[in-house]
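Appendix B. Raw example, untouched.
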Amino acid sequence: MARVIADGKQIPLDQIKVGERERPVNDAGVEAIMSSVQTIGRFLDAIQIRKVGKRYELIVGNHRLEAARRLGEKTIRATVWECSADEAKLFEIDDNLARAELSALEMCTFLARRKEVFLRLNPETAQGSAGAKARWQNASDIDVTCIEADAENLTDIDVHLIEPTDCFAEVVAQKRGVSKRHAHRLVAIGESLQPKTIEILHASSLPVTLKDLTEIAKLHGEEQIGVADALVHGPATKVIEAERLYRQMPAPLPEAPEDVALRKLTDIFNRAPMVAKRRFLEILWSRHGDLMDQEADSRQ
């Protein structure tokens, strides 16, 4: 169970580790905080960190932490928690969900990530709910356009899997103005998007709408990634156009057998320890040295 072990404590910046974050630092946000601190003379809110051994790991407040570093601060005011990595991740996701400037992509992926982390922390909530898991955990098999209609018939267990705590319901309903039915739809979309697809869509200079995400989430495998890439980097402005462009692209040529063999040999050689590599080269030279010399002479 998470608990606060120190509140308002000044922590040295060099003792705070920033691990993998759900959302990257935005320079404009950091500069706004720096301007506020320079005007007011202090940070308004403490950052949230957790104790990990003799050091600390950031939970919430990456922009404030970066602003403190750029301002040349040596310490920062923090609330210190004793909690697990999954509990810390849940705090971070909830903090992101409470923000007003989330994009449709961030909303879908954050909600899906929150469900994943919550189920790891509370595996008992998934027991006895095979029907719910069949519908919601395997979201790639769902026609996401039907999710809102299907949500009318959800059992209490189904809702609990997607919306397991009052905190979650408050973040989604109050902060985001999203109904329970709509939350199901957002989670299913977020679960359907592949990591590479999300990475490509995050790089888009144009806003990716919920309608775009709904259509992309229907696709599978390489097609989903290819259509997302065509939408972000190609001339298409709509998913239907991106699908048409992707399907018109020529299929990659099959690899020649000798190229496949060479790739496999190279991969094995690269992964072998240095001692094995030296012995292999010695054997290769002793058996095929003449052939290798002839090949070298033919290239001169």
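End of appendix B.
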